[in-house]
Amino acid sequence: MSRDDTAQSFVGQESGEDLRVVKTRRALREALVELLGKTDYAKITVTAIAQTACVNRKTFYSHYRSVDDLVAEVIAYDIEQLCRKALASKPEDAQGVDESESLTALFLEALDESFDKRENILKQLGFVKLAEMAIDPMERIARDMCAQRGLTVTDSLRSEIACYVGCMLAGYAQWRIDASDAETLEDVARCVGRMASGLENWALR
Fold first, then answer.
1. Which has the closest alpha carbon to 33: 78, 63, 3?
2. For residues 36 and 120, is the Cβ–Cβ distance under 8 A?
3. N or C: which end of the chain has fewer CB within 10 A?
């Protein structure tokens, strides 16, 4: 199973199609997160994950090809939960530029809250890899929103989302590096939100 396949696969398995599979994969995700709290990412092994999840190595390999595959799923799961949390908190009357800025602010706040929990892994991956992993779950969210609103999904949707994700994470990374009181997360969200609202046929317009 490829990393991309793994990153996308958790959605179906979380829907309850096979309870045993859901429980096992959830246990493995939780084991990885537990280990990340006390071990460097590069030192985490399949054996350690399996032992923490109370399964054997064979069970691990029946679901994942490597630690990296499991990491991809954990990140994808986190990102999709982050996105859905932001959407659930969005003001109902927000539209156009206001909607883009509002959603971006919520995304960035949720990202900042989760950064400390995942600092170990995020620093190892880097923001470029994180951006690559974020595109698939955010595309799923955008397609869901298009379906709910009766909008047609354009061929350029994925490219537009990639631009949005890249700009949002680049802005966030620079904000953390600068650590300046002069610029707030709201300022970053305003800048990225305006860019997003200008993307033709973008799903959140």
1. 78
2. yes
3. N
